[in-house]
Amino acid sequence: MSDEATRYQDSVHTPTEVANPEAYPPRLVKSYPGAPRHPLPWPPEKSAHRLGRQLAELGGITRSQWLTPLDMLPFTDGFESIPDDDPLQWLVTRRPTPSGGARYSAEWYVIAGPDSEVPTGVYYYDPARHDLVRLRSGDYLGRVAARPATTVLVQTNVFWRLAAKYGEMYYRLACLEAGIQVAQALVVAAEEDPTARLCFPDADLTELLGLDPRAEGVHAVVELVAPVPAAFEGPSLAAFPRAFAAHASVLRQSRPAPEPLAPAPAPEPLPSEPDGEPLPSAPAGEGERISLPHAEVDLKAGTRTRHAAVRGFKAETMSIGALATILTAYGRQQNWDLPANLVEFYCVVADVSGVPDGAYRYLPEEHQLELVGEGDPRGRLREAALAALTQQGARTANLWLLPVGDAEAAEERFGPRWYRVQQAAAGGALHRACLAAAAIEVASRVHNDVLTHLLDAWLGLGGRKRSLLVAQLGTEHPAGPRPEFRLTW
Ligand SMILES: Cc1cc2nc3c(=O)[nH]c(=O)nc-3n(C[C@H](O)[C@H](O)[C@H](O)COP(=O)(O)O)c2cc1C
């Protein structure tokens, strides 16, 4: 135990000082001067080019917003902190996926094989021009894919874009964003049976892409299998369930799901409040349970409207149906190489019809909430929230999602990679939840500016279990929706 990642997790909770911010250029898109380019059809959604559409829906520059100093107010506490030399208003571009500080450090590369929609080769997806920059022309698919894929997407992160704003915290955000990007990829590329891997020989891939491994991390690969022409479909076999089950068991064996992590040891006795009073929470596993109604939405619908709530929320009751829809997506296992229980799905609820306020663990298989902490959730969240906007959300949102990871179990399985995959699992879970929320017109915002470790005792977490990140969800503040231009679709 006690490796670099553990030290990092225990010591970096907030951004650290960046001594020379001027050393980082404000460039959010790479350029490869002189490299050959392969155009992709525009607008992407109107073309039959699946790869072009998928890349636009992952990392494309698809939205623009008009912001004014008023929009900075919830982050700064006052107009005084807005520099005099700043213009009075900004036109900013946005992408389909959220990004810490809108630094857009996540990038996508493409490894195309002979059956891909673009000529065989290795490419960088340039979101500014919506085209592919060709880096190599050979067929590298067999070296990269673990199954017979037709195209592989590779997700990387340009560390300095985050480091310029967050200092040491860049690594945490890069790992979280890998999960967010992969969650989005698995939704927008659903027509190509996507599977993702976060455990792969990343040093080899870094070389293949020609990247400096210290400056840009290669975090995930997503393997796509292009559809074949549709065949005539035979009649249903639903009338012969025993034969079908026998056949299905062989299919499951041929591609087994990742083994779950070992169960956590019995929780240690809960720590006390500073004044010696025990915390009013039940040990996980024994709390009162609430069954939720069945509710599921197509996450793809959420990719069209998801955005981070700019002004926070309007205190309004959330229905239990909306809660159940969001939690279903939050706890859903993705088609990737990480175990379903790499993170646990904790949440805090306030003013949701039929669910008493408090902290809960969502149990995806049972589709139930288990009470883990009682008491005033809003007060506790406000104390942990750093920025004015996050504090506003503590007062007015209805649901705070807090994925929890057990470093011990993760390290045992993944070695030094444990931190990276655990953060990715947390980011992916939150993004799925935010997509489901967007699909039912519930607003959301992912927040790293919450000192989540201050909430861990209340959540009943022991050993090396920690809450990893927060998303706030609720009814959007009426002044929230910004004039936003869709640059595509
Ligand atoms: C990992 C991560 C951490 C974030 N942390 C914060 C935060 O601490 N405070 C905040 O106001 N927004 C936070 N955001 C939201 C981003 O600011 C937002 O995604 C970005 O401005 C782009 O806007 P959009 O989500 O509407 O596309 C975070 C987003 C991500 C992905």
Task: List the uncertain runs.
Answer: 272-283
What ligand molecules are bound, each kind once? flavin mononucleotide
Largest sheet: 8 strands, antiparallel
| Helical residues, percent | 25-40%
Strand content: 15-25%
User: What is the rounded Rg?
Assistant: 23 Å
Q: State the secondary-structure class.
A: alpha+beta
Any idea what the CATH superfamily of the largest domain is called?
A: NADH Oxidase
The name CATH uses for the topology of the largest domain is NADH Oxidase
Second CATH tier, the architecture of the largest domain: 3-Layer(aba) Sandwich
First-last Cα distance: 49 Å
What is the approximate shape?
Answer: globular
Say how many strands there are: 18
For the record, the CATH class of the largest domain is Alpha Beta
Number of domains: 2
So how many helices?
A: 14
Chain-wise SSE layout:
Elements: H1 4-11, E1 37-39, H2 50-59, E2 63-67, H3 69-76, E3 90-94, E4 106-112, E5 121-126, E6 131-136, H4 141-144, E7 151-158, H5 159-166, H6 170-188, E8 195-197, H7 202-209, E9 216-224, H8 241-254, E10 289-291, H9 299-303, H10 320-330, E11 343-349, E12 358-363, E13 368-373, H11 377-384, H12 388-396, E14 399-406, H13 407-414, H14 418-439, E15 443-447, E16 465-467, E17 470-474, E18 484-486
Helix pairs in contact: 2-6, 3-12, 5-6, 6-14, 10-14, 11-12, 13-14
The structure holds flavin mononucleotide (FMN).
The site of flavin mononucleotide (FMN) has 18 residues, from helix 6 and strand 15.
